[in-house]
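Q: what sequence does this backbone want?
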């Protein structure tokens, strides 16, 4: 089993240095690992398997930012991403469909991970395994107009962070 780790690497991220086979994400409160990303259901851009590292790097950055926003001060969150299934599908039978992600109501985003939340002393105060999905991803106002390639996943993950770690907070992406 291959592990790819994203750890607090602010200096490297600022310099835009990309290490092959690794994910670089700035995080003080979040540690993100991708377990066997080569087996993920659908984690590529433009239907290129080589873009899997780019997707995992982008997801690690999103998760780190959400952790900074929603994980309370003094706590550390460890996330192990087990599977990714991005919104939409490639439909190679369509004209130019081999590199266009078609969004349909049955191709919602889904991400599965394990998490462990620790307090300042290192004691575990919460843990579990969740499969986060958004079957209504096409109905979110404004999400379809965002140019971010992971816009639907970002909304879905922010909802999960808000509900799991800060139930009183409102989502900022909608």
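A:
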């Amino acid at each position: 089993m291959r592990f790819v780790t994203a750890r607090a690497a602010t200096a490297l991220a600022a310099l835009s240095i990309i290490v092959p086979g690794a994910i670089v994400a700035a995080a003080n409160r979040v540690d993100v690992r991708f377990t066997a990303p080569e087996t993920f259901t659908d984690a590529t851009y433009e239907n290129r398997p080589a873009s899997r590292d780019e997707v995992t790097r982008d997801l690690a950055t999103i998760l780190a930012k959400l952790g900074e926003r929603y994980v309370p001060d003094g706590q550390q969150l460890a996330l192990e991403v087990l599977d990714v299934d991005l919104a939409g599908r490639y439909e190679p039978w369509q004209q130019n469909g081999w590199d266009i992600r078609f969004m349909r109501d049955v191709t919602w985003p889904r991400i599965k991970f394990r998490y462990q939340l620790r307090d300042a002393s290192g004691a575990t105060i919460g843990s579990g395994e969740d499969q986060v999905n958004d079957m209504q991803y096409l109905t979110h106002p404004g999400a379809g107009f965002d140019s971010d390639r992971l816009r639907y996943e970002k909304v879905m993950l922010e909802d999960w962070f808000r509900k799991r770690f800060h139930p009183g907070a409102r989502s900022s992406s909608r």
